[in-house]
Structures are given as structure tokens and as C-alpha cells.
TrEMBL record:
Residues 42-281 form the ABC transporter domain. InterPro entries: AAA+_ATPase, ABC_transporter-like_ATP-bd, ABC_transporter-like_CS, ACT-like_dom_sf, MetN_ABC, MetN_ABC_transporter-like, P-loop_NTPase. One of its GO terms (molecular function) is ATP binding. PROSITE patterns: ABC_TRANSPORTER_1, ABC_TRANSPORTER_2. It comes from Rhizobium paknamense. PANTHER family: AMINO ACID IMPORT ATP-BINDING PROTEIN (PTHR43166), METHIONINE IMPORT ATP-BINDING PROTEIN METN (PTHR43166:SF30). Belongs to the ABC transporter superfamily. This is D-methionine transport system ATP-binding protein.
Length: 385
């Protein structure tokens, strides 16, 4: 896929140029656009994509209808082959849907002619997993390329490249070659190159997958900063759920080319409804310690034992673990065994596992909507005598 992306990137660079507007005035710059549509909004309407291959047709996307709000950070996740790249690449027409429509700022881009496509690709920047920098060119020349191709005057190129390098924290690196840069710095060059055309949408295809965890965090914080400061819509594909949790407002889960589920990140991650989402989120779930899991019985013998109780929180209605309340209901000798709780967009979700004395009315006691959104007894730990 990288080779294809590289060609595609070159194509984008060849056609990309300078937009005559800043992010704040983008909407006014395009004619024929409904005034009510927010800058940087994207709408997929019944989008279909079927590839023709030597082995026969491959259906990559089926009936995708969804809205990406302008100015939001929107994550797309799904297993390998789910259709994430295919969908992302319809936004700048690197892929043309075989059915349905993609609307950018309310305009159906499937009808665009060549000159409109050039303008579209200025409005929609893209960054890649392997950065796609030109190794024989300096940082300055890499970032300046879209402006040079568009015929922007030298002085303006200089000023705009300087401004964008400052924005991404690469001041002083103008004359450095990519081979001398760290992975994080290379991605900053990629981001600067995408931003120099002043796009209103930034597409990120696994932009942090080649980076170590610390560098990933610094790039994510840069993307968040750009989103806030420039009002840019960011659509990103990632296989790292922590990336979605860290910066996205909304998430779309694709499964075999269809929408599995979508919503605000705290809603989808707090209460995943689709099996595909649960499978993707599994790495974030620590599970019970093995020694404990191995000792548990599913039934209570009636003899003295400890019951392990799992309280689940989905983030809905602001309900979150209240230890005082749990102790009041279950007794002072109740202990916390494991906490797998997360705070996303101000909503607490996840699981809290506690141990409390087994007793006949335990099921009844824990079925209390003031304690958690759901509760269950995982099993019973009977001490050896
Ligand atoms: N140019 C192509 N020709 C034929 N089939 C393709 C082409 N591009 C993608 N596909 C197929 O379309 C489906 C969706 O591919 P896509 O790359 O969009 O998935 P993805 O979710 O991005 O996968 P990954 O996470 O592995 O990159 C897959 O079955 C893939 O093999």
C-alpha cells in the first residue's frame, strides 16, 4: 500500500498549490456552497466502493452514510481490510466511489472537473505513515514544494514556509535533509507540508504508526493544537486505540466495508455494542490477574467465600464509581481488586472489580442503578481449608 500512497502523494503534491484563503475565511472563498454548512465538514451519502481486480470484483465499502462535523477530530478504526483507507481516500478523490456521494462543505466532489480537483486537494491535506518526504530535498524544499508547484512568488513561499515550520516546532531545521531527522521530526515536516496550502481538512493515514510512544504523544498533541488553533477538521485512520482515546471527538468503526458503529468516542469506547469494536478495544482491557482467574468458581458452595464483583460504567449520565456508596451497600470489608477505568471527554467508563463476602442476597444488592450501569458476579474465591 505504501507504494500506491507514495504515487498518490506525489500526485497530490503535483496538483496541490496555495489556497488564497486562511482557515478562518475558507467558507467564503468557495462559491456555490450552502452557507449553513460548516467549513471542513464532510458527508458520505450511501458511499460504495468496488475494486476491479484480476481475481474479480472486491467490495471495499457498502452503504456508508455518515457526517464528519467541520472542525472535529474524527477517527476511523477497523480490522485490516475493513475499508478504512478506501473511505479516507474518497475525501480527496484519490479514490472515486463506485456509488453514492461524498460532499465536502456541502459540495458533491464526485462531479468535480480537473481544475476543481486541484482546488479540492489544496483544501484537503494528507499525511502518511512513512512521511513520504523527498530525501534529496531539504526540509525547506519539501515543505515549499506545493507552493512552488502552484507558482507562488519566492518571497511569499519563504514567509509561509517559515510560519508553518514555526507552527510545527521545526524552526532552524530549514536546511536539514530528511535523513538527518528523527521519525517525529520527519512527521512534523509532513504536517508542515500538508499545512502550507492552508487546508481546511487534514487526512492522517496511520500518521503515528511508525513512531515510538513518546513521539506519538508529541505528534498527537501537535495535531490537537492545530485542530484548535486553525479550526481544521482532522480525519485519521489508526490501529492504535489509544490514539483515538487521546485526541478524537468522534469515531467510526468499520467492519467488512460497512459501518459497525459510530458516535462520540466516550460513547463508543464506554459501551461498545459491536463485536468488532470489542475486539479492537481488547488490548486496552487488562483482564483479571491470571492467578485469581484460575482460582475462581462460577458457583457459590454456600461456604464462606469471597465474591468478585464487576461494576461496569459506560459514561452515560455522569454516573461514576462512588466508593462510599459501594461500601455502604456491600459492607466495610469490601476491597478493590482491580480498576480498569478511563476518563474520555469528561466521561468515566470501564470496569471496577471489588471483592466482598459471598452471601445469598448479593445478586440483589449489586443490581442497584446508583452503583453502576451494570454489575455481575465474576466468580467465587473459596479459601483452602
Ligand atoms: N486497488 C485495489 N484493488 C483491489 N482491491 C483493493 C484495492 N485497494 C484495496 N482493496 C481491497 O479493498 C478492501 C479494503 O481495503 P482498505 O485498504 O481500504 O482496508 P483498510 O481497512 O485500510 O486495511 P489496512 O488496515 O490493512 O490498511 C480490502 O479487501 C483490500 O484488499
Amino acid at each position: 500500500m505504501s507504494a500506491v500512497l507514495f504515487d498518490a502523494a506525489t500526485d497530490v503534491l503535483t496538483v496541490a498549490g496555495v489556497a488564497s484563503h486562511s482557515a478562518g475565511t475558507l467558507e467564503a472563498s468557495f462559491t456555490g456552497k450552502p452557507a449553513a454548512v460548516a467549513a471542513g465538514s464532510i458527508r458520505f451519502e450511501a458511499v460504495e466502493k468496488t475494486y476491479v481486480s484480476s481475481a474479480g470484483p472486491v467490495k471495499a465499502l457498502t452503504d456508508i452514510t455518515i457526517e464528519v462535523p467541520g472542525g472535529s477530530i474524527f477517527g476511523i478504526i477497523g480490522r485490516s481490510g475493513a475499508g478504512k483507507s478506501s473511505l479516507l481516500r474518497t475525501i480527496n478523490r484519490l479514490e472515486l466511489p463506485t456509488g453514492g456521494h461524498v460532499l465536502v462543505d456541502g459540495e458533491d466532489i464526485s462531479t468535480f472537473h480537473e481544475d476543481q480537483l486541484v482546488a479540492l486537494r489544496r483544501r484537503v491535506g494528507m499525511i502518511f505513515q512513512h512521511f513520504n518526504l523527498l530525501s534529496a530535498k531539504t526540509v525547506f524544499a519539501n515543505v515549499a514544494l506545493p507552493l512552488v508547484v502552484a507558482g507562488v512568488k519566492k518571497q511569499e513561499v519563504k514567509e509561509r514556509v517559515a510560519a508553518v515550520l514555526k507552527l510545527v516546532g521545526l524552526e532552524g531545521k530549514e536546511n536539514t535533509y530528511p535523513s538527518r531527522l528523527s521519525g517525529g521530526q520527519k512527521q512534523r515536516v509532513g504536517i508542515a507540508r500538508a499545512l502550507v496550502s492552508r487546508p481546511e481538512i487534514l487526512l492522517c493515514d496511520e500518521a503515528t504508526s511508525a513512531l515510538d510512544p513518546e513521539t506519538t504523544l508529541s505528534i498527537l498533541s501537535l495535531l490537537k493544537d492545530i485542530n484548535r488553533r486553525l479550526g481544521l477538521t482532522i480525519v485519521l485512520i489508526t490501529h492504535e486505540m489509544s490514539v483515538i482515546r487521546e485526541i478524537c471527538d468522534h469515531v467510526l468503526v468499520l467492519e467488512a466495508g460497512r459501518i459497525a458503529e459510530t458516535g462520540r468516542v466516550w460513547e463508543v469506547f464506554g459501551n461498545p455494542r459491536h463485536e468488532a469494536t470489542r475486539a479492537l478495544l481488547k488490548p486496552l482491557d487488562r483482564g483479571l490477574p491470571e492467578d485469581l482467574a484460575g482460582r475462581l468458581n462460577s458457583r457459590w458452595s454456600g461456604k464462606p467465600a469471597t465474591a468478585l464483583i464487576e461494576f461496569t460504567y459506560t459514561g452515560v449520565g455522569g454516573l461514576q464509581p462512588d466508593l462510599g456508596r459501594i461500601l455502604a451497600v456491600l459492607g466495610e470489608d469490601t476491597q478493590i481488586i482491580q480498576s480498569n477505568l478511563d476518563r474520555i471527554q469528561g466521561h468515566v467508563s470501564g470496569r471496577l472489580i471489588v471483592a466482598s463476602a459471598a452471601r445469598a442476597d448479593l445478586h440483589h444488592l449489586i443490581a442497584n442503578p446508583d452503583l453502576a450501569h451494570a454489575a455481575r458476579i465474576i466468580g467465587y474465591d473459596t479459601p483452602n481449608v
